[in-house]
Amino acid sequence: MLIHSASQLVTISGGPQRGVDLGRLGIIPNGAMRVQDGIIADIGITDDLLEKYPDEPHVDASGRVVMPGLVDPHTHVIWAGDRAAEFELRLEGKTYLEILASGGGILSTVQATRLASREELAVQTLARLNRMLALGTTTIEAKTGYGLSQDSELKMIKVLVELARKGPWDLAITYLPAHAIPPEYKDDADGYCKELAEAWLPEMKSWWQANAADLPLPFVDVFCETGAFTLEQTDLILRAAIAEGFPVKIHSDEFDNLGGTTLAVRLGAASADHLVAASYRDIEALGESNTVAVALPGTPFGLGTSDYAPGRAILAAGGILALASDLNPGTSWCESMQMAIALGCRQMKLTPSQAIAAATINAAAAIGKDGEVGSLEIGKQADFLILDVADYRHLGYRYGGNLVAEVYKRGIQVYSASGGSL
Amino acid sequence: MLIHSASQLVTISGGPQRGVDLGRLGIIPNGAMRVQDGIIADIGITDDLLEKYPDEPHVDASGRVVMPGLVDPHTHVIWAGDRAAEFELRLEGKTYLEILASGGGILSTVQATRLASREELAVQTLARLNRMLALGTTTIEAKTGYGLSQDSELKMIKVLVELARKGPWDLAITYLPAHAIPPEYKDDADGYCKELAEAWLPEMKSWWQANAADLPLPFVDVFCETGAFTLEQTDLILRAAIAEGFPVKIHSDEFDNLGGTTLAVRLGAASADHLVAASYRDIEALGESNTVAVALPGTPFGLGTSDYAPGRAILAAGGILALASDLNPGTSWCESMQMAIALGCRQMKLTPSQAIAAATINAAAAIGKDGEVGSLEIGKQADFLILDVADYRHLGYRYGGNLVAEVYKRGIQVYSASGGSL
């Protein structure tokens, strides 16, 4: 298949983009791309490729942007129930305690998720993944963390493994039993951490090798925050994970600075995520490391606060900055990386080209998939979007809608705006 | 036609909602509605209506919300060109003067719009109206104001009249040659205002009576702001408009407080729009009037600023608060009233029910159409949405996507998510 005559073929070639180099889009005007067996086989200008491959089936992208599929490297996409009532209570001025008393908060999602069958969880998650695909997100990180018991966390893992095999999206699975202290351990957080480190993690490793060896080992993640896990607890859990061979991530500095970001760098974590309260020293550490700095502008936006991750400071320090949605039922039910880009521009003062690179190649790096997706280069997966605009800068500039006309995953059309979603 | 089994039939009955009464949604659980000849003929609970009208064709809305079509009472939907490059320059830190020097700013849109043919303008505007329809907006206010010459403003009016007749949307047309001082008058703003008041307005009145008498007279609007029109100039233009019989509106207090809001109330304007810099006295005046307070949260969001219209203060004063998108190519290219609702909740601390009433019945009041649209009541137009959720609060709670499954205008399906847009 030959996609040709793109007004801009946005390649984002050359690997993850560090520091102020962020935003190199490698645009080929009047660009073309040949896809074979789901892989990008050639790339160049339209005249050359039409001459080289005259008999290939054609897709005419005249007047449109062709770009890599968006990558969302931080989501809590699997859960049961919703918290719409809690959202309203919060706006009516109810306090956190009143909301808890009326059944709100993260533990209400834990309760609904524990009660849900695998089938119910799969149906609800599938609907979200399909909407994300229609909004142009072709590779998605997905965390457990609303089970908080070994059985229900495993139930979430099983559903995610099933959805990862089903596709067409690529899923990067993350095991996050350290998302909150489960009610059963509310007076013994250390005991929970010890249980995780000594039993759940080795048992997850064995389960994975026996049941999901076709997929890469999941990430292990910890929510390092006041009210969740301390720095010492985070360190304990992640060292145990690393000893088992799991790659790791940390939710750090969302509200309070506990030192999670610098720990992420020290442990060689794939990413440190949130970073709103990161210190100058944390940012310097990120700048000297390969730990990707994942900003989640939907979270402060969702909460109606005004503190965003210091994107420009991270770039000035030389960090690898990525964007993600943080899709979750509490603080930010947003399935659109186009929205994350629009927020990154307005609230973090990224340019559209920076935000786009942060939402593709750097986002892929945050989940260890930058060798396969996140750019349009020979040998990579043919995951790409055709936008209904002639200039990439409309991403960011426009917001609240969907600029995607067509989505292709491994060379196959999986969404078309004119034909509805598959 | 009988739409039945809605989990919530959101009627928003009883007319515009003033002050802290905002948010009465008049929800009928398991609701049903009979539509005849494009008008709502009956409304009630499903069992009753199924028994009364057993032979009517049925639409099953089980597990879904049925609500009035959204009304967008402030847009600049008609223009040519775009300002994506300017958006990028702004984020790169370029100054306003540098942007002007590189061809940016409102006058670049004026130049493109003056050069565009009626056909080009119609095609670009039609695409936007169709996207708005797919996002659930069935009634749309549309302003001229990028022509700024009598001919090009008339060209915009002609396109809008043509699009209003074409439908399926209802358009409320607004004549806004007082959007900016045209380059030809840059040293003679008073002369421009005199020309408008003494020649353009009476001539527009005559043109309308001869060519568009099937449509209500347009609103006349003025951008009362530092760098645009002074309070005295606004007063002069609007008094002339009122003398000709035009209903009027004012863009007031977007950045600076020039007194436009209180003038709007004194003149009996249909609405005062923006209101970010409104004073306590302005808000009190709105509270005692029928002038609708139109908040445009997309504008500060689009600009990345943190000052929003004081929605709760307007409610406390007893004002009639509406939401609008302010869709325009400079500060806020957003076609989604769902996004305006999400912003109203997060940035103005409205509850979902308040934001929904502000985006339907009160928005209709801002353009004098609350007798026809904006609620689901017997005798009103059957303009309604079927949302792909069971609880209205998902509007506001979720953002960045499209919760609309189906859109009906005058009883006819004009959009379906599964079948693409018409």
Describe the structure in your own words.
The structure is a homodimer of 422-residue chains. With 422 residues, chain A is α/β, with parallel strands linked by helices. The two termini of chain A are 20 Å apart. The mean pLDDT of chain A is 96. The first copy, chain A, folds into two domains: 2-69 and 372-421, Urease, subunit C, domain 1 (Roll), CATH 2.30.40; 70-365, Metal-dependent hydrolases (TIM Barrel), CATH 3.20.20.140. In chain A, strands 1, 2, 3, 4, 5, 14, 15, 16 and 17 form a nine-stranded mixed beta sheet that branches. In chain A, strands 6-7-8-9-10-11-12-13 form an eight-stranded parallel beta sheet. Chain A contains 16 helices and 17 strands. In chain A, a hairpin with a 2-residue loop joins β15 (404-409) and β16 (412-416). Chain A binds chain B through residues 82-85, 87-88, 91-92, 131, 135, 298, 301-304, 306, 333-336, 338-339, 345-347, 349-353, 391, 393-394, 396-402, 417-421, and chain B through 82-85, 87-88, 91-92, 131, 135, 298, 301-304, 306, 333-336, 338-339, 345-347, 349-353, 391, 393-394, 396-402, 417-421.
